[in-house]
Amino acid sequence: MDVRLLEQIVKMMAVNDLNAVELRDGERRITLKRGPATHSGPVYHTLASSAPSHAAPPPVAVAAAPAVDEDAGLTPIKSPMVGTFYSAGSPDAKPFVQVGSTIDDETDVCIIEAMKVFNNIKAETRGTIAKILVTNGQTVEFGQILFMVKP
User: Fold this and answer.
1) What is the DSSP string of 53-76?
2) How far apart are alpha carbons 143 and 78 in whole angstroms?
3) In sequence order, what DSSP letters do the residues of 107-131 get, joined into one string?
4) Biggest CA-to-CA distance, the chain
5) What does the alpha-carbon distance between residue 112 and residue 139 come to, in Å, rounded to a whole number?
6) pLDDT tens-digit map of 105-124
7) Which one, of 41, 42, 25, lies nearest residue 33 by Cα?
8) Cβ pair 10, 42 in contact under 8 A
9) Residue 42: strand pairing partners
10) How confident is the model at residue 39 (pLDDT cuts 50, 70, 90)?
11) Rg value, the chain, Cα
């Protein structure tokens, strides 16, 4: 089996978002499988055949370095309902909070409109806004994280 051909097939798999390809050549069968996006590359499986193979051994997968969780230690503020997120009380008003704003339990952080009712959302935590994960006018789901707070 030609290694360059296998590399081309793997590239085609990635471009076309294919997870598996099986090739047969007489008695020989080769299956190429790609894992989830966090996987470092394709996995090569080969079955033994009676014909001698001149293919190079399959590449060895190298484990990726563990991802650093940049949200570790941050407290989320989640949407208590489905609706439309508004960062300010009116279109011309300044936002309730911005990155770097200090908040406490009673600080209004946004408004969520649900069924024509405008609901002020309280922080219910203390700290500093580290991230704002939604944009003004965006539809949000129940439990969706809106803000990340550094305690």
Assistant:
1) --PPPPPPPPPPPPPP-TTTTPEE
2) 5
3) -EEEEEEETTEEEEEE--S-EEEEE
4) 76
5) 9
6) 999 999 999 988 999 999 99
7) 42
8) yes
9) 34
10) very low
11) 26
